[in-house]
Amino acid sequence: MSFEARPLRTARLLLRPLTADDLDDVFVYQSDAEVLRYMLWPVRDRAGAAEHLDRRTRMTRLAKDADPLSLGVETLDAPGRVIGEVNVRLTSVSDRQAEVGWVLNPAYQGRGYATEAAAALVDLCVDTVGSHRVHATLDPRNLASIGVCERLGMRKEAHFVQDAFFKGEWGDTCVYATLATEWRARRDAQSTESARA
């Protein structure tokens, strides 16, 4: 299966393709050293943020191995303002594997937006793209992203020690994942619980 970028709605968010008009908002978090502390790329100046955004605006189709999709995150109560971005990469079409990731403006962290947006991505991978397994790869020092993975019900599958050299030092990598069957069972259980409340 494949997916062409289009807007996705959640209870509080709109996930939609990024455009060049989003530069001011994207620059806020792409220039923040704390936000990018655990990312592989450096802090960006405005020109670097514009290059990043230009690449992201072209990440619009999931069909073959290594295809990336990038969507801007808006809150429904502040339309037109991008507060972060979420990404999917097809790691193996034949094995039906996908990787998800996210980055958020710090002013909007701690409100559950990253978890809500990431859940929509996993839904997309499982229900539309047909992924059998969805995973997230992150720095184990990134406690906020670990929290997102855990709230999504992902399990920790691996901890690689000093497997990546970035920003002048060796770093570890953790992998969290869920299977489509686990994701659907958890989602169904949550829907049943919500209906009873």
TrEMBL record:
Source lineage: Bacteria, Bacillati, Actinomycetota, Actinomycetes, Micrococcales
SUPFAM superfamilies noted in UniProt: Acyl-CoA N-acyltransferases (Nat)
Name under which the protein is recorded: N-acetyltransferase
InterPro entries hit by this protein: Acyl_CoA_acyltransferase, GNAT_dom, N-acetyltransferase
Start and end residues of each N-acetyltransferase domain: 13-181
Domain of life: Bacteria
Pfam families according to UniProt: Acetyltransf_3 (PF13302)
